[in-house]
């Protein structure tokens, strides 16, 4: 069963290129920059995040993803710049990507509207010799291991106030080819995110949010979350990924700049009999300018 799952995951990611290829992110509400470049600069600080996700623990060859991102406002603050890098492996395949972001922001509608472009590329590697084919005459069994660079362009739009945010992003717009020997390319992904922070008291904030992801010829992924901020320090949350899993999240604002988070995914579909859940951790730090007051620290940034 494990071998079948590995091969199935590989086919989904690499061969037909029609399913969801971007890594699942459970803590999207704390790090939207991963899939929406227009989030750049919205924290009014140089914000950095390291995130690691281990999916389907117990299944050999299951996805493992590491992401590093840095972004912040630039000079006039109408412009924001960002950089992110990813390293993801699924079975015998590996993708390493680096990208730069340019965002332009304007004040409007009692908030801020940001539009952004992100460009870069992925280094793709497929080790065919690590795949066990049941049928040696399969055309993919005759394929040599491949290394390839794939260019990539993403677009994002993001509107936010102190309590509300709405984002729209499209990734892999150029649909770069992953393999010359197969009909394999990066599919366009579309993300819609939204959330609102209800200030119940000075020490209690309730923030529901939703993330909807669409890829052509793949099921729509809907992730609904409710999180609570206690004493401006501890976030506790739970998500329901429709027809897929339950997610439990905890984040702690350790200092005015440092935050750490952890999430655990528990599958609710048939695959739950074969895995031990998925784990995701992140460490974030905001380098706030000294001229900023304490009120601009992450302890009061609900979005």
Q: Can you walk through the features of this model?
A:
The chain has 303 residues and is mainly β. It has one helix at residues 2-15, and strands at 46-54, 64-74, 79-90, 93-108, 111-126, 146-160, 164-171, 177-179, 184-185, 189-196, 198-201, 204-215, 221-230, 234-241, 245-253, 258-267, 278-287. The chain has one domain (2-300): Porin. The protein has a 14-stranded antiparallel beta barrel with strand order 1-2-3-4-5-6-7-10-12-13-14-15-16-17. It is globular, with a radius of gyration of 20 Å. 5% of the residues lie in helices and 54% in strands.
| CATH architecture name | Beta Barrel
| Tally of contiguous helical segments | 1
Assembly level: single chain
**What's the Cα radius of gyration?**
20 Å
- Could you state the CATH homologous superfamily? monomeric porin ompg
Order of helices and strands: HEEEEEEEEEEEEEEEEE
Question: Top keywords for this entry?
Answer:
globular, Porin, 303 residues, mainly beta, 14-stranded antiparallel barrel, two-stranded antiparallel sheet, 1 helix, 17 strands, disordered N terminus
In short:
This protein has one helix at 2-15, and strands at 46-54, 64-74, 79-90, 93-108, 111-126, 146-160, 164-171, 177-179, 184-185, 189-196, 198-201, 204-215, 221-230, 234-241, 245-253, 258-267, 278-287.
């Amino acid at each position: 069963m494990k071998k079948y799952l590995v091969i199935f995951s590989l086919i989904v990611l690499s061969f037909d290129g029609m399913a969801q290829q971007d890594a699942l992110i459970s803590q999207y509400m704390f790090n939207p920059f991963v899939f929406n470049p227009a989030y750049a600069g919205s924290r009014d600080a140089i914000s950095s995040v390291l995130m690691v996700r281990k999916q389907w623990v117990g299944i050999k060859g299951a996805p493992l993803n590491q992401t590093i991102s840095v972004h912040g406002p630039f000079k006039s603050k109408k412009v924001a710049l960002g950089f992110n890098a990813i390293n993801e492996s699924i079975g015998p395949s590996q993708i390493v990507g680096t990208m730069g972001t340019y965002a332009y922001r304007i004040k409007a509608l009692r908030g801020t509207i940001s539009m952004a472009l992100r460009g870069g590329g992925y280094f793709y590697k497929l080790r065919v010799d690590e795949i066990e084919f049941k049928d040696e005459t399969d055309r993919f069994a005759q394929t040599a291991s491949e290394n390839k660079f794939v260019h990539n362009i993403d677009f994002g739009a993001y509107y936010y106030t102190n309590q509300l945010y709405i984002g729209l992003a499209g990734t892999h717009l150029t649909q770069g080819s992953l393999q010359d020997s197969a009909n394999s390319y990066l599919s366009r992904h579309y993300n819609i995110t939204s959330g609102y922070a209800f200030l119940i008291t000075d020490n209690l904030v309730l923030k529901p949010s939703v993330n909807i992801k669409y890829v052509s010829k793949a099921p729509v992924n809907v992730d609904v979350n409710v999180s609570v901020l206690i004493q401006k320090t501890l976030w506790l949350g739970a998500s329901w990924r429709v027809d897929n899993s339950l997610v439990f999240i905890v984040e702690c604002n350790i200092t005015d700049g440092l935050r750490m988070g952890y999430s655990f995914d528990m599958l609710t579909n048939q695959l739950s009999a074969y895995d031990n859940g998925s784990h995701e951790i992140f460490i974030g730090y905001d380098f706030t300018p000294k001229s900023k007051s304490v009120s601009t620290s992450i302890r009061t940034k609900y979005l």
